[in-house]
Write a structure and sequence with these properties.
Strand content: 15-25%
Structural class: alpha/beta
Distance between the termini: 53 Å
Shape: globular
Strand order of the largest sheet: 1-3-4-2-7-8
Number of strands: 8
Length: 192
């Protein structure tokens, strides 16, 4: 009886762990959900708020250009395929300690702890170029995708909201300047 109880408890623990993974992962793109991404970035920022060496990095917001047009022309399954390609490309350009999450329909966020401004620009540009070079087949049509990236770098204690808002402002700037580009600037003032 004790063995049976222990076996059932172990099965329950495994099931709970699997549920936690499912809850933290976007089912379409296999990246973190918005909630899981936010919690992990907040935890990093809190943990290293008094460690000047580790309190630096970058935060990016990545948006698929003209995504609605893909859905309208080719259907939502084609849009889903485009999102999977974008998520996969983002992950391929990251280190194991970096985080990527899907925060909206066609919008992703990336947290790059410990990177300098120039390193963040290089990674963002590599993502943009890789997406632009990929050819995607939608029905009988071959298309190229593009992304716009807004970002901010930081070297002082800050908050998730400050990083997200600064990166999102840069994303709007990239979109207004023609799309398929990156705009990354340092976070100017500390925000807790």
């Amino acid at each position: 009886m004790l063995f049976l109880l222990m076996s059932k408890l172990r099965e329950l623990a495994i099931a709970n762990e699997e549920l936690a993974t499912i809850a933290a992962t976007d089912s379409l793109t296999s990246v973190l959900t918005r909630g899981a991404f936010t919690v992990l970035v907040d935890a990093y920022l809190a943990k290293f708020s008094h460690d000047a060496e580790r309190m630096k990095g970058a935060f990016l917001v990545v948006d698929a250009d003209e995504f609605k047009r893909i859905n309208d022309l080719f259907g939502h399954s084609s849009g889903d395929e485009a999102l999977r390609l974008i998520a996969s490309t983002i992950r391929q350009n990251l280190r194991p300690q970096d985080l990527v999450g899907r925060v909206g329909g066609d919008e992703f966020t990336v947290f790059l702890p410990g990177l300098s401004h120039s390193q963040a620009i290089a990674i963002a540009e590599q993502m943009r170029q890789t997406i632009q070079a990929a050819e995607v087949r939608f029905l009988d049509d071959r298309r190229r995708l593009s992304i716009s990236i807004g970002g901010t770098t930081f070297a002082q204690p800050t908050s998730f909201d400050a990083l997200f808002n600064a990166a999102d402002e840069r994303l709007y700037l990239a979109k207004s300047r023609g799309r398929n580009r990156i705009e990354i600037e340092p976070l100017l003032s500390p925000a807790a």
